[in-house]
Amino acid sequence: MAFSPLLQNLVNTLRCLPGVGPKSAQRMALHLLERDRPGALALASALVDAVENIGECSQCRTLSEDDVCDICSSQSRDRTLLCVLESPVDMMAIEQTGGFNGVYFVLKGHLSPIDGIGPDALGIDRLLDRIDQGEIEELILATNPTVEGEATSHYIVEQLRDHPVKITRIAHGVPVGGELEFVDGGTLAHALAGRRSLR
Amino acid sequence: MSQRVESSAGYVLHTRPYRESSLLVDLLTLEEGKISAVARGARRPKSRLRAALQPFQVLQLGWHGRHELKNLGGVEHVEVQPPLSGTALLCGLYVNELLQRLLQSGESCPRIFLYYRYVLNELQSGEDIEGALRTFERQLLEELGFGLGLHGLDTRLEYRFESQLGLVPAVAGQGGYSGRLLAAIAEDNYRDEEVRRCAKRLMRQALGDLLGDRPLNSRLLFSRIKE
């Protein structure tokens, strides 16, 4: 049986969500229409609201509906410590640990010559401008430990060659609670290369 | 007929996200040259595939499939190379971009594979990166059927490079390539600074012909770092 055009359209549209195939889209559409019409209206207006109003923070480039996001405008944050990340999700991950009290800069990607992603797409000029303002004392490069993430940090370091700011890179290695036996070779090599002295 | 390869040496040239949890991987393999394959589930949080599918590491790979896009099977590290860093890393990305742009899919090119290994080793050791890159570029051109024809040139003459024709004798003093330097390039002898400069210009011209209007992004990146 074919659905009516409106219903079919709703099912097709729901499939733009990650993890939603034709079956689940159909289930969602029928659930919203049969059992939860107020919920459906709330969802629709929340979506419109979010898409129309959420932009990026002018300082750290994360998703935010204000010009400056909460973290960047917070008084209790240490503004001399800047952590550079690849995506807003990484920022949430670090925020959840609660162990970092500095501010962030989100690149929203990494340098990837083959994909044609260059420094301009990542707002690296904005990052450099911010460092030039002189407030930042330490720059923590927390891009992913992939080839592209490494290339991105290398590029940033090179652009700051003549700048006195302290630059650090997050450590890569064996996960906490892990056992060496099960760690892949690449990670072990990184862990050995980045060992630190205890005395 | 479905085609299945159990185990072949290969390198990852590039990966990009595919569907929700998979990766589309471009590989340089010893037996079948450049191939593209889907690594199913490689982007799931617990997947071991993603850690294994890093560029510049020699892997043992298995794949199957009838079409141009294969399904990746087993992936195993053979030996762990220390990761490239700094300038060597960017040079590695340059080499990968060259191969990605110039190699045809599915054409066996064992010589390129060997020279790729060679250039990665040199990048690792960092002794003569420039010489290694030029040697690799020359071999790549040769293998693609655009050899420079460096042998049997007169060391007293000057040459210019013409697309399609290659090196042709030119009037001296008009910015051509000196035969003496070209002879050194033919022997992969890059000790002399003058030879290096000449080789860089020549390779850039010859590769530029093949690459067309679209410049190499990694080269743009280099020029911005040197600013």
TrEMBL record, chain A:
Chain positions of all zinc fingers (C4-type): 57-72
SMART domains (UniProt xref): TOPRIM
PROSITE patterns: RECR, TOPRIM
Keyword DNA repair on entry: yes
A Gene Ontology BP annotation from the UniProt entry: DNA recombination
Domain spans labelled Toprim: 80-175
Pfam hit, one: RecR_ZnF
Keyword vocabulary terms for this entry: DNA damage, DNA recombination, DNA repair, Metal-binding, Zinc, Zinc-finger
GO terms of molecular function: DNA binding; zinc ion binding
Domain of life: Bacteria
Known role: May play a role in DNA repair. It seems to be involved in an RecBC-independent recombinational process of DNA repair. It may act with RecF and RecO.
Similarity section: Belongs to the RecR family.
The name this protein goes by in its record: Recombination protein RecR
Native source species: Marinobacterium lacunae
Taxonomic lineage: Bacteria, Pseudomonadati, Pseudomonadota, Gammaproteobacteria, Oceanospirillales
Automatic annotation (TrEMBL), chain B:
Alphabetical list of Gene3D superfamilies matching this protein: Nucleic acid-binding proteins (2.40.50.140), Recombination protein O, C-terminal domain (1.20.1440.120)
Pfam families: RecO_C (PF02565), RecO_N (PF11967)
Keywords: DNA damage, DNA recombination, DNA repair
Start and end residues of each DNA replication/recombination mediator RecO N-terminal domain: 7-78
GO cellular component entries: bacterial nucleoid
UniProt-listed GO biological process terms: DNA recombination; double-strand break repair
InterPro entries: ARFGAP/RecO, DNA_rep/recomb_RecO_N, NA-bd_OB-fold, RecO, RecO_C
Family statement drawn from the similarity comment of this UniProt entry: Belongs to the RecO family.
Function field: Involved in DNA repair and RecF pathway recombination.
Protein name: DNA repair protein RecO
Natural source organism: Marinobacterium lacunae
Gene that this sequence comes from: recO
